[in-house]
Task: structure prediction
Amino acid sequence: MIIQVRDLVKRYGDVVAVDHLSFEVEQGEIFGLLGPNGAGKTTTIRVIMDILNPDAGSAMVLGQPPGRAKGQVGYLPEERGLYRNLKVLDTLVYLAELKGTPRSAARERAMDLLERIQLEDWAARKVRDLSKGMQQRLQFIASLIHDPEVLFLDEPFQGLDPVNVERIKDFTADLHREGKTIVLSTHQMNLVEALCNRILLIHEGRAVLYGSLAEIKRQYAPHAVRVRAPRIPPDLPGVVGVELDDGAFNLALAEGASPQEVLRALLDRAVEIQTFEVAPVPLEDIFVAVVSGEEGRDDGLA
Amino acid sequence: MDWHKVWVVASHEYLINVRRAGFIIMTAIVPALGVVVLLFGTLFAGQARQLGAFFEQQFDVGDKAIGVVDESGYFSPILPEYQEDFVSYGSEEEAEAALMTEEVSKVLVIGEDYLETGQVVVISMGSGFSAATVSDSGTVRAFFVDHLLADRVDPALRERAADPMDVEPRVLSSGGEARGEGPWGFVSTFIIPYFLSFFLIMTIFTSSGYLLQSVAEEKESRVVEIVVSSIRPVELMAGKVAGLGALGLTQVLVWLLSAWGFSGGAVVLLAATGMVSLPLRVLGLGVVYYVLGYTLYAILMAGVGALGTTMRESQQLAGIFSFFAAVPYMLSGFLFANPNMLIARVLSYFPLTAPTMMMLRLPLAEVPWVDVAGSIVALLLSIPAALWVGAKLFRVGLLIYDKRPTVKEIWFILRGGRGE
Result:
């Protein structure tokens, strides 16, 4: 287990930012830490990064208290920036040295990483001379300059243009393949779906969804299939409703009916099927449904 | 405490700031002034008198004569040696007309009852300042004394009465040994230590100003969150305080070395022969107050500076400390007269004013040892307290980006409500 959070509580005065939160991050996975603004994601990350002390509960990183593991953890904060008047290479070397990396090793790794994000020609230039996109790429490699085991990326795609989103996404996937454990916090659900193995959804400091992304999607999938075909016969067994949506039919299934039965029935009736799929549910819909469900419940209680 | 990381921060801060244009200019300006003084000295070596006359002229109201309307009878006729500088007029109107046409710079109206009252009306054009200062003028003083005593006493006595003393300062320490004699003694016991104190104090403020700037910059650029995820805030603070303290010492060292260079080692030689032995005591204690004062101010500035959301806000917040440090300077007029006055002694025990107050007092007089000990103890006690408050504010302040905390929130932080 790379990260183990147990019953974590963090209050700011009367406001409970994190409320008895528990979760684990496993070796080598990309873990999605999701939630609406103000849900407590950044506070949780800050506790794990040893920037804040918890009021109760504990966080362990690589089997140690957060303060001891600083050298093995990388962090790209949501509120981020770099020394504007420092040279690119000097910035990276200084940040690596703060993490405990020796100067010479830091220089070598900095040049490697700069090459990977195509900024090697800018090493001797000042950070303020870089374009915004370049600075964002630089911030990204600054978080892994000390070759950490675990990487926390808090909104890494925020404010990026599509080209840079794609670059950072590919870089993240590469790091995952290299065996790094990555905790990704973002509002861009399509990227979570593309990258994450497991997720935790926090709302008002509490866990409301936690587990494997595939499992969660299965759990929240509507009981329906989506078929692209010229026509749908009216009295298909197991189908309780048909709806035309964006050039395809959504078939709501009766309780106990399986998609396979429906497919068989369609083939039996010689329907020319172009596509057939179990209706997917976007993570975004699950997110909205769960969060507004929670809010509805809170309102009900109030 | 990870001392390696403290060292990384300290050397980083030192190297970044030692290259700043502001620092280089500040450091170079003192030796540059020395060069200017030397050049002037060489250029005008034979013309010192003219140079002095030149400056005197700049500050004098003018070399025009002074009109005199004498109703007392003591000043008529004007003695021959004063006839160039003083012109007698029969009436006030006549004299005023001369003033209007700028024949004279001012008019003295000496009344009939002058001997009893001493009253003299001084009429001048424009500012009343020159009229008010006329009694301080040596020439005017001599004019009065000479005329009052003319023919009544012998010339030597008359001359002495007009200029009763030519001061040569000679100061004894409590042990009885002379602190210095003649003009050089005055320079070595007072001028050199005074400027030394002044520069040390200035260095405290440039260094802690850089510290403030460095904290505010990290906060404003948001790099701080990456930094505190790598290093504990107290280590960051310690590194910054140490690095920028070393920077300040570098500045002082450059100044001292350049002073030595310019004077061809004269200062050092004099120190070796014992002539500047007391200033060395001042120098030794000066360094102690420098280190303690800088540490206290730097810690407080780092803590308070971290609360601001922008550089400007941080500077405003830290301004309160500069104010405290400046209080002894506001009192320096009184300090020259009596360096051991009660308020000076009280402020020497108050940690925020102690470093500047003591640095100002030390060159001026023999400061009671109890004040020296008391001020050092006060500083030594306040530094851990400042560290406790400063580190706490620093740790929490660093992560508050959007707004400056209110006094209530700061109190809450200090009670351990947040961040700890």
